[in-house]
Amino acid sequence: MSTTTLPPTMKTLLQPSRQKTELISTTAPLPVPTHPDDVLVRVHATAPCAGELLWARDFPDTIPADKEPVPCQDMAGTVVSASSSSSSSSSRFAPGDRVYCRIDASRPGAACDYALPRASSLARIPQGLGWVEAAATPLSALTAWQALFVQGTLDVAAVKAGDEVAAVAAREKNGRVRVLVTGAAGGVGSWVVQLAALAGAGAVVAVCGRGKDEGVWALGATEVVDYTQTSIEEWVAADPGAREVDLVVDMVGGRTLAGCWAAVREGGAMVTINTPPQYGKPEGMTKKLSKELFFIVEPLGSNLAEIGELIEAGRVRPTVDSVWEFADFKKAFERLESGHAKGKIVIKVSDEA
Ligand SMILES: NC(=O)c1ccc[n+]([C@@H]2O[C@H](COP(=O)([O-])OP(=O)(O)OC[C@H]3O[C@@H](n4cnc5c(N)ncnc54)[C@H](OP(=O)(O)O)[C@@H]3O)[C@@H](O)[C@H]2O)c1
Questions:
Q1: CA of 87 to the centre of ligand 1 (A)
Q2: Where is the signal peptide, in residue numbers (predicted)?
Q3: Which of 31, 58, 184, 193 could form a disulfide with 116 if both were Cys (CB 3.0 to 4.6 A apart)?
């Protein structure tokens, strides 16, 4: 472990009670690496995720009782120290490297000056991406990537460089898949739209609220449903033969999820990240799908590196809703919990961001 002069304490946000969503700003000792794959990072910018302040209360099996309650699991920063042992995966990173990641929800987040992500979750920030945009990327992009290419039915070879023959074949295959995505203008949704379009999906149907259509067209949507004007059920019922989809990615749940059941074709696939598909299945519906699943994102640095190649090539881009000073964290969370962000809400942590 290389050393550097570090302050004894740092500023941090903390959630004093897991039963309440209230946050405080305070100071605390710096986190101390205890595992060979721990990497100490000076944080420049971070981003919260919708609903995250209720995870510890609602999913106690996933969030350990002794977790230091620092919120915001998305992070962009500079490596301070990493293990120099060649057997450790953190040795891939050196002090001064610009890195970003999604910190696993079971570990303290990044709303603080120094965070301690695991090397397996880290990737180098692509050239040309600033701290704010970098912090806006990991969770949303990883979730979209895994929803489409790992859990869903699009072939990832379509977006990979290096094997043009495989890419063309994959794009042809993906061209037969109509994708519908809800929450399409939000953090995850804006990545699903871009990645599905880039992978050559036969259609990208973006479901979003009023005033969001321009943004989702620009990201690559081929059809837009304004759910405040037309429900998904009404939209598909107008022309089921042409409008039914092969793959749904839903991040809204509730009534919206019921609409997704109407839109997916018999034998199609449904991937959800808010509530399991069965929770929204209308009573009496007999439709059978080839795949229906809820999943939790895996914070894989390897996937983030693949996404980083696409960013560096200028083929995809994070969408930032708004940027907040650290002292304005309450306003940032209020904006997030309004539920209608256009992309990610980012909090600056250092003066460099
Ligand atoms: N399972 C996982 O691993 C995982 C990973 C990441 C996120 N999530 C969850 O996924 C959800 C979305 O996350 P996010 O970061 O994308 O949130 P977000 O940025 O707040 O976006 C949510 C989007 O939902 C849309 N929306 C709100 N009410 C709606 C309604 N009634 N019908 C249709 N759309 C509606 C909003 O768009 P409009 O303004 O256009 O209405 C907003 O853009 C959250 O619940 C989050 O906790 C889960």
A1: 40
A2: none
A3: 31
